[in-house]
Amino acid sequence: MKSMKSLLVAASMLAGTIGLAGMAGAAPASAQMLDPDDPQDALEISKRLQCGVSADEPAVYHWSGNIYGRSPGVRDTLLFKGEGMNIRRCVEVEDPTRGKGWRLISREVMLMLDPETGEVLDSWENPYTGQTVEVMHIHNDPVNGRPNFAVGADGEPYRLSSMRIAGDYVFMPFEAPLFYPNPLAGEYQQYVGNMYHAMEIFDFAALKDELFDASTPTAYPMISWVRISPWAPWMEMGGRPGQMVFNAMGRKLPGGFEELPDVLKDEIRENYPIYESAPPKDDMRRNETTWTKFRKLTEAKRGEGAAAGMAEGE
Question: What is the pLDDT of residue 137?
Answer without folding.
Answer: 98
